[in-house]
Amino acid sequence: MRCQRCRGDAAVEIRRHHAAFCGDHFIEFFDRQVQRAIEDERMFTRDDRVLVAVSGGKDSLALWDVLRRLGYAATGLYINLGIGGYSDESHRKTVAYAGAHGADLLVADIPREFGMSVEELARATRRVSCSACGLSKRYLFNRVAIDHGFTVVATGHNLDDEAAVLLGNLLHWQTDYLARQSPVLPSTHPTLARKVKPLYRIAEREAAAYAIIRGIDYIVDECPNSVGAKSLLYKEALNLLEQASPGAKQSLYWGFLERGRALLATQDAVTLRACVHCGQPTTAEVCAFCRMTERAAERMRVQRLRGAAAPAVAAPIGAAGAPDSGGAG
């Protein structure tokens, strides 16, 4: 393959654009796609302070990197979810990037602040782990942005992510979600930051290629809690379509943005008010995050009380004469 710009050896092929680029010209292509996304959707300007949600993965680190190179005031936000070694490694990758590039980084720590990891929050409230994780991240993205004076929150959702979400919403005709699916979620409340997705024109493998060419070290492993997630199934289905028909994902998602979302624009606006506990915007008296953390804290308290009230039972003696740990935990 030859680079279509310089005719040198190509490093990255982009079949949906019938194009291939050498490393330098691929970076130029990547920059143009991101800049076009920002301008076409009026996401933000260079006067805005942008908070970039960074997980240590290729997409979010690539986004943080390209925004800084394009001259935007982009600060990273890493959220420690408390998912064992996965969180430890993703934190190291994020801190390493910030240190190597002199980038500003904020850190929010869920276990330290709320006394339990997202997995423990999920178990205590009988939620799916991804549900508790998503709710926690959305809450903290907004709270940190408002507390630190950021006008916009940017996430690393790419074309593959958005096409998979769209497919899932279409399969189940989730009209409320379809009405809100957009590269930009505007602020509709004084304490609600604008949310944007500048990589919606970038495929997942292109974000990986960008990170490799730019020498960005990112965590390769998927979150261990994502195993079996429907979104991964939808991605696999779309990958099969993309192999047979390059551009299928782009056609699906961009077509929805150009024609489909206009049909849903008549959905009634949601009225927001401040949560009586934390002050964050919500449709109810108490926001979903406060309800989750309060419910989890109450269940943990009840469990501790039950444990303290349990009658003492003589522990069985093991073969070595020591108390047998059994399975009581």
Can you walk me through this structure?
With 329 residues, the chain is an alpha/beta fold. The protein has a domain of 199 residues: HUPs (Rossmann fold, 3-Layer(aba) Sandwich), CATH 3.40.50.620. 49% of the residues lie in helices and 11% in strands. It is built from 12 helices and 10 strands. The strands form 3 sheets. It has a 6-stranded mixed beta sheet, sandwiched between helices. A two-stranded antiparallel sheet has the order 1-2. The longest helix is centred in the C-terminal third of the chain and has 22 residues. It starts with 11 loop residues before the first strand and ends in a 20-residue tail after the last helix. The C terminus is likely disordered.
Compile the SSE list and pairings.
Layout: E1 12-14, E2 19-21, H1 23-40, E3 49-53, H2 58-69, E4 73-80, H3 84-101, E5 105-109, H4 110-114, H5 118-125, H6 129-147, E6 152-154, H7 159-171, H8 175-180, E7 184-185, E8 194-196, H9 204-213, H10 230-244, H11 248-263, E9 273-274, E10 281-282, H12 288-309
Parallel strand pairs: 3-4, 3-6, 4-5, 6-8
Antiparallel strand pairs: 1-2, 7-8, 9-10
Helix pairs in contact: 1-9, 2-9, 5-6, 5-12, 7-10, 7-11
Attribute tags:
329 residues; alpha/beta; Rossmann fold; six-stranded mixed β-sheet; two-stranded antiparallel sheet; 12 helices; 49% helix; disordered C terminus
Brief rundown of the structure:
The chain has 329 residues and is α/β, with parallel strands linked by helices. Helices cover 49% and strands 11% of the residues.
